[in-house]
Amino acid sequence: MNRAKMILTFLMTLGMMALLGGNDHRALADVIARTRFVDVHAHPVVGHVLYKEGDFYPVLEPPLRRPFWAVPRDRIAVFDTMEPRALRAIYGYAKDDVRENDLPALRLLSEAFWKNGNQAAFDKVMDLCGIERVFDNTDSLPKDINPARVFWVPFADELFCPLDPAGLTGVSPDFKLDLADYAKDAAALITKHGEVVKDLPSWLALVNKVLEGYKRDGAVAIKVVCAYRRSLWFDDPPESEAASLFLRGLKGRLTTWEEHKKIQDFIARHIFLKAGTLGLPVHFHTGFGANAGLKSLDANPLNLESVCSDYRFKDTTFLILHAGYPAWDHVKALLEKRNVFVEFSAVNWFVYEKELTDILYGWLTYPGASEKILFGSDAGAPVFFWIAAENSRRALYGALSRLINEGILDEAKAVRIARNIMRDNALRIHGGR
What we know:
The protein is built from 14 helices and eight strands. By secondary structure, it is of the alpha/beta class. The chain has one domain (3-45, 130-429): TIM Barrel (Alpha-Beta Barrel), CATH 3.20.20. The strands form two sheets. The chain has a five-stranded parallel β-sheet. Helix 13 crosses helix 14.
């Protein structure tokens, strides 16, 4: 370990020691401070990028106005509370709050931080946050990142939404537009691979080819975000019905959402099975999200019982993203299934330490859950990585020390569980990547 990393580890350990009150679990605090996370869910933004009004995600710290949450600056939020500390840790920002007139100085700090190149600077971000590697959810990995530390998770939704919804009625204009965008993406895939799609079998053959290409190109998982638009319940229509509907869909003759959903569900199930044969875990967006159109009932993780409880998917690994929040307690029943796991990204910069501690404690008191929980950040800008990591370390210490104090765990077992949650569970289900 080089001198810089030794200093960072020492400072992180001091921070964890500050958590210790009358119950002194120093070995646990030391391991949580020293262990570097494997972050299974992120959207890293690298380089000095100016934030513009209307950007979907904020990419210049500090985002004083976040367009996907139209709330005033005086709200009570984890981000606002921890932001100055994150800016200090990453950029050397000196003040205890952030106002509009601080932006010019912050811009200079950001430019200086990234001036030596995006790869080196983002590696430094990860080091400052105590993160060893990151799984980037993106259509394609950027070139200016460290391939030894940033791994690829491509999106899969376009593969089960290939049909033009032009004739679809009875749905919102936004939903129809989303389906049209997916159909355009699917058409681009057909052109890219030089295929002719004349029926359902030929489309499934192309789906297999695309997924095999993802695996060959280094993907460690695939990502499904359809919960923003539709239910996570995937029905099991007969192949003959799906094939007939697909032919009609190619001719633009589908008019109802029920018809489209049957085709999507059939293809999605095919994708999940194929992912299992390729050793690609399937990551599902669940719970809350950055879109007013999301329906919490559709995004409830219990909907995934439609596939998680189907023995045909016993060789497919399913990862529930965002803890299913706010339905995080519903996840417990799903964790009984051998191939289902959960992480808590975004929750760790959305709720305060006490609530996150309660969530982790609630899971950990469920049999076998300690081998099923992973860390993720859902971070884009560097401050989100820092806040997610810091909040998670504190909450993990809080949950495990509480279990020790209650006589449920000894400290040695708590240390093993901490390592599992911070990195080992992620490495195990993603093939050591």
